[in-house]
Amino acid sequence: MNAPLVPVAALVEPADPAARQTVLAARDVGFAHAGVGTIFEKVSLSIRRREIVALLGSSGCGKSTLLRVLAGLEAPATGDVRFLDQPQTRPHPRSALVFQQPSLLPWLNLAGNVGFGLDFAHQPASDQESRRQRVTAAIEAVGLKGREGAFPAQLSGGMAQRAALARALAREPELLFADEPFSALDAITRAEMQTLLVDLVHRWHTAALLVTHDIDEAILVADRIVLMGGRPGHLVQEWTVDIPHPREDFPSEVTALRLSILGALRHA
Amino acid sequence: MVVNVLLPFVGLLAAALLWAAGAGWLTSVTPIAASFAPLPTLEALWLLLQGHDLWEHVAISLQRVGVGLVIALVLGIPLGVLTGLSPLFSRSTTPLFQFARMISPLSWMPLAVMVLGVGDAPVYFLLAFAAVWPILLNTAAGVAQLDKNWLLLARSLSATRRETIVHVILPGITAQILTGVRLAIGIIWIVLVPAEMLGVSAGLGYFILDSRDRLAYSDLMAAILVIGFLGYLLDHAARSLHWRWLHA
């Protein structure tokens, strides 16, 4: 019997990012806090597979709140959010969150933290062996192999944030939500982690939404930069970044983009 | 080094000397007080430790401490979690709890004996009533101090309410619960002896009164030493439990 041949091309994702499947689609999303009023309004944003989108904005512009709405932690006041073409009513099991603080659970060791929640009721069913493999792979991917038994108190700031990243990866996410994940780290560790993030997103075929107030971080990491500003907050401008990695090797392109973003900030 | 090891014994030694001096002075006033002195006390203690009775009283008292503590934990932790999680519950119960907490548990004793009868039940009630407040209040404070990101993490995993409580909240407040347990043990141990002086026929409190009635004053002093020593051990156990949890 001849098995039907699957055309190889169908298995390979199109090189053109615009042709890839959309993971997250937000349409005209708005959010208001009782007493504070409208935080942001009319935000439309879509994130495709294997794409890093940086959401750039000054402190207090509502970008962290927008991330929480997009991640399904808060319901939008207006508009809707779809995850893999399904309306999102709560955090999707194939999305994962990384915060500014590692927020590891101090009573669990590294392996316990990375595997935390994989067996929760609303997570995809999985057997213990596959969960163990995912934890091992995630720990290896962030370069913490051999420290599985270490407790959070024994990890440095950078290692703890790597562990937090591994915890997100262990869920094999389609989309990684990261809220200023590196802003509490020192400059050298931050640079390492930015490189690691780009590398992981490419190797794990995930997409990422990175909230940041650091223009350089956005330029070095993102495939697309979205600038948020105004009161109430809205998306001001968008840049597609097609500078090859590592972008430190292309100073003139980076500078040009930087100036363009600074110019937009001045007019925002 | 040696000084550091010996320092804790300075206070104990000073107390023993004061004890001997006080007993000596009292003996010159009432000769019967000779049996309060350190040497007869240690003699009595030695005999009691070799015998059966004291151990039985100790076992019964410790068992009451255990039951009282368990009841306090079973009531205090859920109420504390509820207080910490629900501002509505907290606001509507705080005045009541603060009010009830300030009533000496022993003042309930006549009522407890009337309602629960003679025997262990009123003692359990008094001990649990004494111990529940530090556990409840520390649990509630622990919930209020939980890292908000842990709860966010649980929500991002679509954790059910039960999963959040079992996997995040309870382990997250264990240190505070253990602080509450340590305070509770201190209070229970203090309330235990007077609580055992009414309507029961065994336990360290009963043994104190019994020794008095038998005019066995050396036994009475020995029981006081035993009570102090056991209390010290209990506190030490609670403290090391707390320490070990924090340094897992």
UniProtKB/TrEMBL annotation, chain A:
InterPro entries documented for this protein: AAA+_ATPase, ABC_transporter-like_ATP-bd, ABC_transporter-like_CS, ABC_transporter_ATP-bind, P-loop_NTPase
PROSITE patterns: ABC_TRANSPORTER_1 (PS00211), ABC_TRANSPORTER_2 (PS50893)
The keyword Cell membrane is assigned to this record: yes
Assigned keywords, A-Z: ATP-binding, Cell membrane, Membrane, Nucleotide-binding, Transport
Residue intervals of the ABC transporter domain: 24-255
Pfam families: ABC_tran
GO MF annotation list: ATP binding; ATP hydrolysis activity
Family stated for the protein in its record: Belongs to the ABC transporter superfamily.
Name by which UniProt lists this protein: ATP-binding cassette domain-containing protein
